[in-house]
Write a structure and sequence with these properties.
390 residues; Creatine Amidinohydrolase, Chain A, domain 1; 19 strands; Creatine Amidinohydrolase; five-stranded antiparallel beta sheet; alpha+beta
Length: 390
């Protein structure tokens, strides 16, 4: 970080950056790392760790942040990405564009006599060509996903402001979607006004807006991209809205849309949903295990005869999916100001019919805070924020 680093809109303060680096280096030191390689690519939800550690916004391809235990970090771009993205925006000013990023990093490790190099994103993000080059070297590659995510799991005041900004954006889009919802339109046409709001307010390409839908008042248990299927009044629509604000912090939100009547199975699921969500919210307090939050959700639906399609939720920040998960085997104590997406997908015993919602929560001292003041209910298209009260 240079002394003449200028303040920029939606970029963190110097104090915030120093706090992030201190927290990450504490985890690195505990694991005996000489340096950390933070990986990010264009795929939605996997670009955020680079933004978090450098301020660089990935537009295309991939980027690394090479972060030593001591000294200044370096942004490592593949040469073909030299003209992609605003290189003047990040606070990390040491930037290189080698033909082979993996070879360059390997050579740097040899030059500095590093023995252990932690990697965030080795399983899902790192380019195979770079892994091959690094694997040829003498430095040990240490998976560091969970440790890195835990270092950034508790959100600072600056980060919480970005999260709430993103929440305001996603709710703005949701109400635009509700206003566009009517039979005779396609799934994509109903979604379009929400996407327009998201993009106009700074989400850019950082969106994942997918859909569960079906006929006769129930939804099929698989996600799809909203397309040209014409919606009828008795179709159940479960739009999964996932976006960031300009600051790059992800939030998630969903409510069911239905103008007709829910099927008997859907109604039975709907009867359990508010109970499960409230039990989860109450359990999101400092010191509680993440597995107990999942258990509160799973047991509630289990008493009504249903199972969950996957984990109840996960930590969320500048990366869409962060650790810890809200799952049966995640015995990680929650801390105040962790942010979680809770998204239980409830499926019937045949695995064919489902109901789904998403909310974003802040862990509190004694209970969780749902960041969306929108009740859980079926929306028919006539509602507005003024006519619907929590």
């Amino acid at each position: 970080m240079t002394a003449d680093w200028p303040p920029r809109s939606h970029l963190p303060s110097k104090q915030e950056i120093e706090l992030r680096y201190k927290n990450v280096r504490s985890r690195m030191e505990k694991d005996g790392l000489d340096a950390l390689l933070v990986c990010g690519n264009q795929y939605a939800g996997f670009e955020g760790a680079v933004l978090y550690m450098s301020g660089f916004e990935i537009v295309h391809r991939y980027v690394y942040v090479l972060f030593p235990l001591e000294g200044e970090p370096t942004l490592v771009f593949p040469r073909e990405a030299r003209w992609i993205g605003d290189k003047g925006k990040p606070w990390v000013r040491d930037q290189v564009w080698p033909d082979s990023p993996g070879q360059w990093i390997r050579d740097k490790a040899i030059e500095r006599r590093w023995k252990r190099l932690g990697v965030y994103g080795m399983d899902f993000v790192m380019a195979v060509r770079d892994y091959r080059e690094l694997a040829r070297g003498s430095v040990e590659l240490v998976p560091f996903d969970k440790q890195f995510d835990l270092a950034r799991a508790v959100k600072s005041a600056e980060e919480l402001a970005e999260v709430r900004d993103a929440m305001d954006i996603i709710l703005d889009g949701f109400w635009a979607l509700v206003g566009a919802y009517q039979a005779g339109k396609t799934e994509a046409q109903i979604m379009a006004p929400a996407v327009e709001r998201f993009f106009a307010r700074g989400a850019g390409p950082r969106m994942m807006n997918i859909l569960l839908s079906g006929e006769h008042g129930q939804a099929d248990a698989f996600f799809k991209v909203p397309g040209h299927r014409v919606v009828e009044a008795n179709d159940l629509l479960l739009y999964s809205l996932e976006v960031t604000g300009a600051g790059g912090y992800w939030v998630e939100f969903s409510r069911p849309l239905l103008q007709g009547k829910p099927s008997a199975t859907t109604q039975k699921m709907a009867d359990a949903y508010p109970l499960a969500l409230e039990k989860a919210r109450k359990a999101m307090n400092a010191g509680e295990l993440a597995s107990n939050v999942h258990r509160a959700v799973a047991e509630t639906f289990g008493k009504h005869g249903f199972a969950l399609g996957h984990l109840s939720g996960h930590s969320i920040g500048t990366t869409m999916l962060e650790y810890p998960a809200i799952g049966a085997n995640t015995d990680v104590p929650l801390e105040e100001n962790m942010i979680f997406s809770l998204h239980p997908q409830v499926v019937d015993l045949d695995g064919k019919v489902c109901l789904y919602t998403q909310d974003t929560y802040r862990v509190g001292k004694t209970e969780g805070e749902c960041l969306a003041d929108v009740p859980w209910r079926f929306f028919a298209g006539q509602e507005t924020p003024e006519t619907v009260s929590a």
